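Fold this: Endoribonuclease YbeY
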Amino acid sequence: MITVELQTVCPDWPQDQGHPLAERCAAILGAEMPEVSGVIALRLTDDTELQALNKSFRGKDTPTNVLSFPADPFSTPPGEDLFLGDIAIAYGVCAREAEARAFPLDRHLAHLILHGFLHLLGYDHQSDADAAVMEDLEATLMDRLGYGNPYAGDEASS
């Protein structure tokens, strides 16, 4: 079972959307990968914070939609649920991307949450082969959420 600890620090995020959507994403991922168990910290924030994190950790001085920070598996104290890592999502970037593609914010947010979850589990898109695996899994998970394939049609890779 995957547990999500949500922190919404940007007031622009719809207050009633983040936690239920994050829990649905966690449940869908847990159903697809029942062997995965642990805690994920999800921070719904703004472009300024994502830009600072992107600059600090990736050397890119620009806001991005989502960043994932996998935890050291040995950092979880004995007897506690395994901490899988942190995910931060920027409201402004997410909202602009959703608007540009003409679909609801919750659809794009779900995709970014799942994308971040998969990064915490070791998936990546550095090579074409790795990207294909990750995107296929994202498409499956998004379909199970009822949103359809995020890579079909007009949505580009996140």
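The domain at 2-145 is CATH 3.40.390.30 (Collagenase (Catalytic Domain)). The helical segments are 18-32, 47-58, 91-101, 105-120, 128-145.
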